[in-house]
Amino acid sequence: xxxxxxxxxxxxxxxxxxxxxxxxxxxxxxxxxxxxxxxxxxxxxxxxxxxxxxxxxxxxxxxxxxxxxxxxxxxxxxxxxxxxxxxxxxxxxxxxxxxxxxxxxxxxxxxxxxxxxxxxxxxxxxxxxxxxxxxxxxxxxxxxxxxxxxxxxxxxxxxxxxxxxxxxxxxxxxxxxxxxxxxxxxxxxxxxxxxxxxxxxxxxxxxxxxxxxxxxxxxxxxxxxxxxxxxxxxxxxxxxxxxxxxxxxxxxxxxx
Length: 256
Fold this sequence. Notes:
Layout: E1 5-11, H1 18-23, E2 31-36, H2 43-48, E3 54-56, H3 62-71, E4 77-80, E5 85-87, H4 89-100, E6 107-116, E7 119-120, E8 130-136, E9 140-143, E10 149-152, E11 156-165, H5 171-191, H6 198-215, H7 222-254
Parallel strand pairs: 1-2, 1-4, 2-3, 6-11
Antiparallel strand pairs: 4-8, 5-11, 6-7, 6-8, 9-10
Helix pairs in contact: 5-7, 6-7
């Protein structure tokens, strides 16, 4: 590719997916950065076979970890992918063509397709799925908590092609991830002094059901779509339940 590009990703126990991710960018990107947090599986061993730029960074703050990885990139244009994602030939070709013309844009919104339980998800809350992934390093940076995102100061374009994503290996992996994310989200709410409200715990899961499963046609994704909906409602319910739990624990601590 004519214009140099750095690919970066963060990892933790991603041995089952990281090789596919790295294979999709090795030989295409000019630089591949991997930032791990002392994985206990063989993530580090696999990553080291594909790049010499492998770093360890311990933090519970995903924003800091992503930003650390971005800062390690040496090229003007950077792109991040997660260890459970991979680039298609179509998106790689399009990126090469777009960057070769020195675009006026400072970042690009990129579409993602999700594969879940052997099926591509085409409806519901997971579709459409897109976010800024490709951008000029000096124009972008990470903001937010558990759902940290890249924010770019400049003009944003859109790419036509897509990259792929397999968010969970199975339903057990999904439930474990949901529990971790619900805890982190509740911690963010608690730190921001957002108070628990019974209305949110009861009605927000119901709202997501009607929005994603009925109005956004999530039921057309079959059994996988039904599982996504049930797990989404559980996630929304649990993050408010955990916020309530934190408040009660804090009240008990203050009573002594």
